[in-house]
Amino acid sequence: MASKMHRNNYFFLNLGFISAGFLFYLCWTQSYTTIRATSSAARKTRPLSNLSKLDLGSEGDVTTPAEGGVPVPAEGGVPAPAEGGVPAPAEGDVPAPEGIIIGPARDGRVGLSCHQPVTTDGRFYKEVDFAKDDEDWEKKSCSPVLTLPDPDEFYNYVETPRLQCEIPVMVGGKRRSTVIDGNKWVCMSKKFKVQPDKCVVMSFGISTDWSFDDEMDKKYGCKVYSFDHTIHKQDHERSKNLKFYSLGLSGTTRTNKMGIVTIDRYINTLKKLNLENSTIDYLKIDIEGSELSFFGDVLYQTPNLMKNVKMMGIEIHMTKKDHRQRFWEFFQRLECLGFKVIFTEMNRVKSNWFHQGKKLRSMCYEVVWARDRQW
């Protein structure tokens, strides 16, 4: 009898455990269903309707910047360079450093997310100090240029957007191994009014990658002017909306042995195309270090030309010690003229990377500035 009672007690004990487990499963299933429904509803309310007359495809076609994108060194990453040295040579594309957010981009590609803005004012000045449209920008002076006290100050500026974009779109780029190279971020929010068939793009620096230029032409109907004096091509029309010119960009004018202008100032290029009074929706510059000369010329000699620029995407190169100080002065001048960083990426070529303390830095960044106003 005792043995039979023992077996019955064991049976009911097991039945209790099974019942408790079944109840836990039901509760977990209900919670999971609720979370999925909430997430799905949140995704459906993303502000993609703000873009009028521009077909960006489905919701998944747009990559929204993710927070926390500041690069940090991966364990066992690139060794820090010696004083005045350069990072260890390790050419080629590599996966994003630990801490950089990777997410789905347009056309199913993988894109590098951008950092979120942290303030409504600029890094150096308050909104009230920014240049106004009715001012003569050649006479505009902000507070004295700040010297660069610490390298961290420089990289904090480069890696921290100050302007929010509701509809960021990655344009162009080619897949190289596991990464996309040559892409540019463009803000398609209503604020910047990038209108199909009316937008104007100037693209300096092509090499072999036409993806950005072609897409701004074919998908968005922009009038695109492309420039590169290093690829040995004659001036030609690549399409109805895309014209190529064998011409470089700098802060001075240079000619070859036959007296033909091969590199010119921004103002001269605009005059050549009758665009000095036209709105430039996107100014793309990737000219391997000559951006310093461009900045020095346009920001101080012809700053009024910048009144007509909505967005400016530039690959900045810091291959010498004094480059940071020179860029630092230009960054402040840009902000004085109302331009704020809206997108930023660290260049993905590993040979440009180095450690600064515990932080992974690069000698090359893709930075997009936008003029903070309603267009």
Automatic annotation (TrEMBL):
This is Methyltransferase domain-containing protein. The lineage of its organism: Eukaryota, Metazoa, Ecdysozoa, Arthropoda, Crustacea. Coiled coil: none annotated. SUPFAM superfamilies: S-adenosyl-L-methionine-dependent methyltransferases. Residues 52-84 are annotated as: Disordered. InterPro entries: Methyltranfer_dom, METTL24, SAM-dependent_MTases_sf. Residues 144-352 form the Methyltransferase domain. Gene3D superfamilies: Vaccinia Virus protein VP39 (3.40.50.150). It holds the Pfam family Methyltransf_22. Residues 65-84 have a biased composition (Low complexity). It comes from Petrolisthes cinctipes (Flat porcelain crab).
